[in-house]
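Course exercise 7: structure representation. Students receive a sequence record and must write out the corresponding structure in token form. The form below is the worked example handed out in class, using DUF2141 domain-containing protein (141 residues). Read each field label carefully; the graders check that inputs and outputs are placed in the correct fields and that the protein name is recorded exactly as given.

STUDENT ID: A-19
EXERCISE PROTEIN: DUF2141 domain-containing protein
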Amino acid sequence: MIQLIFAFFFSCLGLMTSAPAGKIHLIIQETVVDHGHVQVLIFNQEEGFPSEIDKAWKRLSLPVENKKAEIIIPDVEPGSYAVSVFHDEDMDGEIKTNAIGYPLDKFGFSNNPSLLFGAPSFSKASFEVTDQEVKVKIKLR
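STUDENT ANSWER:
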């Protein structure tokens, strides 16, 4: 009986100390056409950003409507996140690149950082999630 009381006490204590979850309202804008999907990778760590699918916290495929894709992701633990996206017009799940590796599909990152020589770092693309909804607008380039 005492073990049951301790188990109940510690489970309640865990519920009281966990931080309330927030939401990410993700809006991907400026698709050229209204077909295909926007492939999304959301990272909660620097490792793997921006393209290692198996290291992403969440992977999504969003339909394009009215030249944008949008979703609200609930129950997101507070912390730092960064998003990378590309418009997969032919819906094959792969980003097209030229001979030197530059993307031919429209792509973007959270915070819309300027790009000089490759993808931005996690820190340049990251944003903070708290117990509130955070709106993340990504303009494709």
